[in-house]
């Protein structure tokens, strides 16, 4: 999953960036509202973590612009603990949830997981498909009841596909979920990870859709 972190405080931003990347999210980090606007109009994200107190353009303006463009990307706004009005304004402007600063990092991750789950149309915390079970919180993957070890990139590809059964994702769309701006993208990387997943989880789980991309079929 690819996230946009919008945070002008360098110390906070570095902590959150390290946390999210340790959880195998691809993350782009911008530090003001104008840069956030540009990123959102040139890149597709699965979630935005948006600080409201930003230089150059307020976070509420960024949020309102997103919703005016009919962008449905989940937005988790970050607000100061003692400013209730900010939280209300953010939710009224189209935010999906809020998290208080200073962050409780476990709560931050839990809220991100919940929003990603909701945006994929799932209520349950664990993916189940055929004989494969995937727990995004623990990163545990089971195939026919046996635990399977995946690399970080294999995990990212699997999570993206199994979250939306029946939806075809192109190689480019999968690459976007794997890599941040500064990462180098190998031309056949997605194919390599798909091959690895099929060896570990069975050839039937991920299907090729000729000329379009890959999908996990609906049951």
TrEMBL record:
PROSITE patterns linked to this entry: OMPR_PHOB, RESPONSE_REGULATORY
Superkingdom of origin: Bacteria
CDD domains attached to this UniProt entry: REC_OmpR_PmrA-like, trans_reg_C
Molecular function terms from GO: phosphorelay response regulator activity; transcription cis-regulatory region binding
Entry's Gene Ontology BP terms: regulation of DNA-templated transcription
One Pfam family of this chain: Response_reg
The OmpR/PhoB-type domain, residue ranges: 124-218
UniProt GO cellular component terms: cytosol; protein-DNA complex
Cited InterPro entries: CheY-like_superfamily, OmpR/PhoB-type_DNA-bd, Sig_transdc_resp-reg_receiver, WalR-like, WH-like_DNA-bd_sf
Name this protein carries in UniProt: Transcriptional regulatory protein QseB
